[in-house]
């Protein structure tokens, strides 16, 4: 299906655990949850027509909300990087909103502005698949060296997801990052595993710390 569309087979049963741990799980995630009924869910690039539904999903799931022009800014500037998870009937049940940045050493890196999955569809592996697709696109299209994000210090569930499932690490604490004054954990993830698979073969991966050693 290529990087822009992944069909995710979801089977409902009493316990929520991944069926497959193979490398292909990033493209075909089969998970178990509640009634032994299978259906196909699409993970695909977000289109301009999806942005309002992404906004609605954000309002349902997260305390950090954005004006519509911010969604359009992402969609128009980096159309390759944002993805949605949709039911067969087209209902958007999750999304990742992402962009590119440059650090002080001019190394390109990706940033996750927002990641959300509706409560009814959590623990199905959708967040991991969305993040995998966005990370791959960052490397393929912009040669990103790493990806960053922010998470509230009080959001233990999200912090656990990012650290234990998605392999992010805390890089620093940013005081009063959020509008209500709460601190944020700034987190990063090295994209070298994606680089080895998807980056142009004639480019050499150089991580932030490697570049600084030679300056």
TrEMBL record:
State the reactions this protein catalyses: N-terminal L-alanyl-[protein] + acetyl-CoA = N-terminal N(alpha)-acetyl-L-alanyl-[protein] + CoA + H(+); N-terminal glycyl-[protein] + acetyl-CoA = N-terminal N(alpha)-acetylglycyl-[protein] + CoA + H(+); N-terminal L-seryl-[protein] + acetyl-CoA = N-terminal N(alpha)-acetyl-L-seryl-[protein] + CoA + H(+); N-terminal L-valyl-[protein] + acetyl-CoA = N-terminal N(alpha)-acetyl-L-valyl-[protein] + CoA + H(+)
> Per the record, GO CC terms?
NatA complex
Q: The organism sits in which domain of life?
A: Eukaryota
Domain N-acetyltransferase stretches? 41-192
Entry's Gene Ontology molecular function annotations: protein N-terminal-serine acetyltransferase activity; protein-N-terminal-glutamate acetyltransferase activity
The EC number on file is: 2.3.1.255
Q: Which PROSITE patterns match?
A: GNAT
The family line of this record is: Belongs to the acetyltransferase family. ARD1 subfamily.
Any idea what this protein is called? N-terminal amino-acid N(alpha)-acetyltransferase NatA
**Organism listed in the record:** Schistocephalus solidus
């Amino acid at each position: 299906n290529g990087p822009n569309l992944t069909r995710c087979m979801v089977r409902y049963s009493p316990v929520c655990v991944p069926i497959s741990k193979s490398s292909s799980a990033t493209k075909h995630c089969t998970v178990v949850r509640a009634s032994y009924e299978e259906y196909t869910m699409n993970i695909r690039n977000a289109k301009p027509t999806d942005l309002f539904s992404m906004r609605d999903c954000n309002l349902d799931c997260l305390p950090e909300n954005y004006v519509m022009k911010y969604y359009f800014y992402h969609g128009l500037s980096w159309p390759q990087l944002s993805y949605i998870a949709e039911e067969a009937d087209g209902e958007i049940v999750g999304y990742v909103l992402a962009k590119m940045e440059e650090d002080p050493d001019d190394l390109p890196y990706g940033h996750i502005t927002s990641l959300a999955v509706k409560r009814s569809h959590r623990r199905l592996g959708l967040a991991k698949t969305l993040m995998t697709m966005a990370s791959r696109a960052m490397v393929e299209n912009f040669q990103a060296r790493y990806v960053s994000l922010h998470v509230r210090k009080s959001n233990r569930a999200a912090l656990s997801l990012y650290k234990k499932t998605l392999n992010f690490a805390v890089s620093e604490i940013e005081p009063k990052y959020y509008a209500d004054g709460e601190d944020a954990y700034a987190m990063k993830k090295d994209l070298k595993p994606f680089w080895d698979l998807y980056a142009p073969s004639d480019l050499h991966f150089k991580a932030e710390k490697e570049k600084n050693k030679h300056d």
